[in-house]
Amino acid sequence: MPRKEGRDKVTGAARYVDDMALPGMLHGATVRSSVARGKIKTISFGPGVDWNEFVVVTAKDIPGKNCIALILDDQPCLAAENVNHPEEPILLLAHAERHKLRKAVEAVSIDYEPLPSVHSMEDSERKSTIIWGNDNILKRYLVEKGDVDAVWKEAAHIVEGEYFTGAQEQLYIENNGVIAAFEPESGVTIWGSLQCPYYVHKALMALCDQPEDRVRVVQMETGGAFGGKEEYPSMIAGHAALLAIKSGKPVKIIYDRMEDMIATTKRHPSRTRHRTAVDKNGKILGGEIEFTIDGGAYATLSSVVLSRGTIHAGGPYYWPSVRIRTKAVATNTPPHGAFRGFGAPQSLFALERHMDRIAQVVGISPIEVRRRNFLKTGQTTTTEQTIQENIDLDGLLDRALDLSNYDAKKKRFAEENRNGKIKKGIGIAAFLHGAGFTGSGERYLNSLVGVEAGADGVVRVLVSSAEFGQGTNTVLCQIAAEALGLPYENVAIAQPDTNVVPNSGPTVASRTAMIVGKLVQSAATGIKETLAKSGLLGEDYTPDQFRIACREYIASHGALKSYSRYESPGNVYWDDEKYRGEAYAAFAWAVYVAEVTVDLTTYSVTVNDFVALQEVGKVLNPVLAEGQITGGVAQGIGFALYEKVVWHDGRMLNNQMTNYIMPTSVDLPPIRVFFEEHGNVHGAHGAKGIGELPMDGPAPAIVNAVEDATGVRFDSIPLLPEDLFEALGDKSGERDFLSPTRGMA
Amino acid sequence: MNSSLEKSAKRDVSFIVNGEERNLLAHPMERLLDVLRNGLGLTGAKEGCGEGECGSCSVLLDGMLVNSCLVPVAQANGASIITIEGISTHDLLSPLQQAFLECGGAQCGICTPGMILAAVHLLEKKPEPALSDIREGLAGNLCRCTGYMQIFEAVARAAQLRMAK
Question: Between β-strands A459-462 and A491-493, what pairing exists: parallel, antiparallel or unpaired?
Answer without folding.
Answer: parallel
